[in-house]
Design brief:
The complex is a heterodimer of chains A (about 350) and B (about 325).
Chain A (H helix, E strand, L loop, with lengths): L11 E3 L18 H26 L13 H8 L7 E3 L5 H6 L4 H8 L25 H14 L5 E6 L6 H13 L3 E7 L2 E2 L2 E2 H4 L15 E6 L3 H16 L5 E6 L18 H8 L3 H11 L5 H24 L7 H4 L7 H10 L2
Parallel strand pairs in A: 1-7, 2-3, 3-4, 4-8, 7-8
Antiparallel strand pairs in A: 5-6
Chain B lengths: L1 E3 L1 H15 L3 E5 L15 H5 L4 E3 L4 H14 L2 E5 L10 H8 L2 H4 L9 E6 L14 H5 L5 E3 L4 H13 L4 E6 L8 E3 L12 E4 L4 E5 L1 H10 L5 E5 L2 E3 L3 H11 L2 E8 L4 H13 L8 E5 L7 H7 L3 H12 L2
Parallel strand pairs in B: 2-3, 2-4, 4-5, 5-7, 6-7, 10-11, 10-13, 13-14
Antiparallel strand pairs in B: 1-8, 6-12, 9-11
Helix pairs in contact in B: 1-7, 3-4, 8-12, 9-10
The chains are: A alpha/beta (about 350), B alpha/beta (about 325).
The complex binds thiamine diphosphate and magnesium ion.
Protein name (chain B): 2-oxoisovalerate dehydrogenase subunit beta
Pfam families (chain B): Transket_pyr, Transketolase_C
GO molecular function (chain B): oxidoreductase activity
Chain lengths: ~350, ~325
């Protein structure tokens, strides 16, 4: 018997806005001018949040912080497509998604300031706490999607993670479960091409991350992660497919980590400034401004006004964060279990002056 | 002799062992070009090249699992897990394989590997960066667990760990990484695993502490006639040094930052109760973290055993 081809596959890549701001009109999502401008504001707000976080860290007003600089479009664009009833399982570098979803800004500062009360998601918001242990939350998204499916709820479940996360067993196990059970899960990878000092080329031998989905029996797509509309479009389609019973999708947002890994890191030890400079030219906000300008939705004055508004919102968030009284020592016991053991109760009393 | 901090001492031990024995290979996340997130492996990638200092993909299970295979094949892998709080995906590899490959193969295959990992609280880092779950690993027959308490013993213990014929978990207290400098000789010296050190002689009460709690204990006992034992190896535990001391003092306080319940203090207390209860004048006191997940920066000082709590325990037991 001759050899035959058992499988071939293709992986799509989606870009909508060119670097000069021109767009493929057939792909531009049907969003109103107000919605397009709202996305712009969220990009600015993310950048302002991030810049302020770095400044606060330098002044010792928050702790170690992972910057999202350069990844704003991949976060805002994806989160803008998420509905209130969907569930979201974030990692630790999606503050742009958090604030697009309406997570209280001051709570994000509070969390990065070393106060876990910042992780208390407001009621009615289906956002799981930030997951620091890379990739370990990916199966949770599959599980929540399974529960939604069993309940007959037409919602989607989203997991965010980084390129490094795709090396973890939990990534593969979560993907397999979602694939084999046809779960309403949308996996969104922020492929910023670095996992601390490890470049993408040392993380995987795959041509793309998107194609990893193929092995689990569902679609993967790579989008230009610095093109907010491409990210939005791909996410919206995947969410609609999931809610409609079409199963999981993996979206790889190809972007770039412009900052050090965290404020404890020094990226100059392992990557060249030229590489980072190249990506500066592909700044997601700059590109979107050019797109909006061509549609008459943007000019310098408008930008200044929006930046001022974002700055004001950030000032208010910092003020709120810093006016929250420190947690009482007993707080560390309050959520360990529904009910404390006698020993824990004793320890709680001893810890409370 | 030079004055080195613990990071430098560990780095020196690795460099000397790698130069001495070309089977010694480092692997882990960011250990190569970056020199490790705490710079413990700094310069080794440049000196020994990418085949001896291997930057792995982000996968703790693959790191420890690969180390088992490498060790069985004849290398001497020294794996780094970036923080102890991220080791749990590799727990299976440690427990199911590293700890028992010698047993399972009836001695035909062994796993002479070291897993180094930063450990303990007090650097105000995010969640899971401040864990001290040493007791899990002491409950794994076949794995040795080592915790250095200073630059000098860190070097000697790590050299011994690398030469040990069985898997060793080497827990490096992050708080001590740059806290003190000590004379650390160049060249080979090993400190035997499984042997405790009397960090301070005394006659009225025995205090056992390790890692960064040892530093705190040494300050807290000033003015007390306390004998302080630094086990350095938590598993196997040096019961002889412990029992000799307790038979002399008749009192025991154990201090650890891990949660109280089923922490290593329980094992130490049980050993003394079983082997030396008739020498005790008063109750054994454990001063430990409370039974809660390690909190973030804003509450960590309320979590860790404070000097006041340590002294209160001494005062209490000394009443007997
Ligand atoms: C299981 C686990 N191992 C190691 C770490 C330490 N660590 C934090 S972030 C990181 C790199 C993550 O890379 P990636 O998934 O690409 O996300 P990015 O940081 O680029 O957003 C590492 C190794 C961790 N948090 N969790
Ligand atoms: Mg990354």
């Amino acid at each position: 018997m001759p050899e035959s081809i058992l499988a071939t596959f293709t992986v799509k890549r989606l870009e909508i806005i060119a670097p000069d701001g021109t767009a493929d009109e057939s792909l531009v999502p049907d969003l109103s001018g107000d919605e397009l401008r709202r996305i712009y504001y969220l990009l600015l707000l993310t950048r302002a949040f991030d810049g302020r976080a770095l400044a606060l860290q330098r002044e010792g007003r928050i702790g170690t912080y992972p910057s999202v600089l350069g990844q704003e479009a991949a976060q805002v664009g994806s989160a803008f497509a998420i509905h209130e009833r969907d569930w979201v399982f974030p990692s630790f570098r999606e503050m742009g998604a958090h604030l697009t979803l309406g997570y209280p800004l001051h709570q994000l500062y509070q969390y990065w300031g070393g106060d876990e009360r910042g992780l208390r998601t407001p009621d009615g918001m289906n956002i799981f706490p930030i997951c620091v242990s890379v990739g370990t939350h990916i199966p949770h998204a599959a599980g929540a999607a399974l529960a939604a499916k069993l309940r007959g709820d037409r919602i989607a479940v989203i997991a965010y993670f980084g390129d490094g996360g795709t090396s973890k067993g939990d990534f593969h196990e979560g993907f397999n479960l979602a694939g084999v059970m046809g779960l309403p899960t949308v996996f969104i990878c922020q492929n910023n091409q670095w996992a601390i000092s490890v470049p993408l080329s040392a993380q995987t031998a795959s041509r793309s991350l998107a194609q990893k989905a193929v092995a689990y029996g569902f679609d993967g797509i790579q989008v230009d992660g610095n093109d907010v509309l491409a990210v939005y479009r791909a996410t919206r389609e995947a969410l609609e497919k999931a809610r409609g019973g079409g199963g999981p999708t993996f979206i790889e947002c190809l972007t770039y980590r412009m900052s050090d890994h965290t404020t404890s890191d020094d990226a100059s030890r392992y990557r060249s400034p030229e590489e980072t400079e190249q990506w500066r030219e592909r700044d997601p906000i700059l590109r979107y401004e050019r797109f909006l300008a061509k549609r008459g939705l943007w000019n310098e004055d408008y930008a200044a006004e929006m930046k001022g508004k974002a700055g004001g919102e950030i000032d208010e968030a910092v003020r709120r964060y810093e006016s929250v009284p420190p947690p009482a020592p007993g707080e560390m016991f309050d959520f360990v279990s529904g009910e404390l053991s006698a020993r824990q109760q004793r320890q709680r009393e001893e810890a409370s002056p | 002799m030079t004055q080195l901090n613990m990071v430098q001492a560990i780095n020196l031990a690795l460099r000397e062992e790698m130069a001495r024995d070309d089977r010694v290979v480092l692997l882990g996340e960011d250990v190569g070009r970056d020199g490790g997130v705490f710079r413990v492996t700094e310069g080794l990638f440049e000196e020994f090249g990418p085949e001896r200092v291997i930057d792995t993909p982000l996968s703790e299970s693959a790191i420890v699992g690969a180390a088992v295979g490498m060790a069985a094949y004849g290398l001497r892998p020294v794996a780094e897990i970036q923080f102890l709080g991220f080791i749990y995906a590799a727990f299976d590899q440690l427990f199911t394989h590293a700890a028992r490959i010698r047993t399972r193969s009836r001695g035909r295959f062994t796993a002479p590997l070291v897993v180094r990992t930063p450990y303990g609280a007090g650097i105000k880092a995010p969640e899971l960066h401040e864990e001290s779950t040493e007791a899990f690993f002491c409950h794994m027959p076949g794995v040795k667990v080592v915790v250095p308490s200073g630059p000098y013993n860190a070097k000697g213990l790590l050299m011994a760990a690398i030469r040990d014929p069985d898997p060793v978990l080497f827990l490096e207290p992050t708080r001590l990484y740059r806290m003190v400098k000590e004379e650390v000789p160049e060249g080979e010296y090993t400190l035997p695993l499984g042997k405790a050190r009397i960090a301070r002689p005394g006659g009225a009460v025995t205090v056992v502490a390790w890692g960064s709690m040892l530093q705190r204990v040494m300050k807290a006992v000033e003015g007390y006639d306390a004998e302080v034992i630094d086990p350095m190896t938590l598993s196997p535990f040096d019961g002889e040094t412990l029992l000799d001391s307790v038979k002399k003092t008749g009192r025991l306080v154990v201090v650890h930052e891990a949660p109280l319940t089923c922490g290593l203090g329980a094992e130490i207390a049980a050993t003394v109760a079983q082997e030396a209860i008739l020498h005790l004048r008063g109750p054994i006191i454990r001063v430990a973290g409370p039974d809660v997940p390690v909190p973030l920066a804003k509450l960590i000082d309320h979590y860790l055993p404070s000097p006041e709590r340590i002294r209160a325990a001494l005062d209490e037991v000394l009443q007997y």
